[in-house]
Amino acid sequence: MMNPKKHRLSVYLDPDIMKALVEYAARRSQSRSLVAEAAIASFLSPDAAERQEAAMTKRLDQLDRRMARQERDLLISVEMLAVFVRFWLTANPPLPEPAQAAARAQAGQRYDAFVSALGRRLARGPKLLQEISEDIPGDQPAETKRSSGD
């Protein structure tokens, strides 16, 4: 039994899409027309929307996990800075007026040394965030947090 005659359709494809179609058809030893027909049929099938929704949901879940990691990393950075500033202010009393000029003179050198050390640390790793466990719940008592390597 012969299928009713197929209808001809002329379409214009972007060169990159045409190249991909030609390569795919050659790999499958199929005609370009058959591959294009199967792709259109798949696109128009009722479950195509479900597949697209599933793919979109998966992508959104990945983005959500990335955003959660970025939020965590930012919170760690802010807390680390706050702890450092508190410690520094506690451990370093204000300098007397005559010593402030000498401290200012050394500040540029010390800052350059800090930036160099930071650059070396970033280049070789491990990063601080890799050293901090993601498994520590936020409601843990302070003494438990300290005993876990703090």
UniProtKB/TrEMBL annotation:
Residues 129-150 are annotated as: Disordered. This is Ribbon-helix-helix protein, copG family.
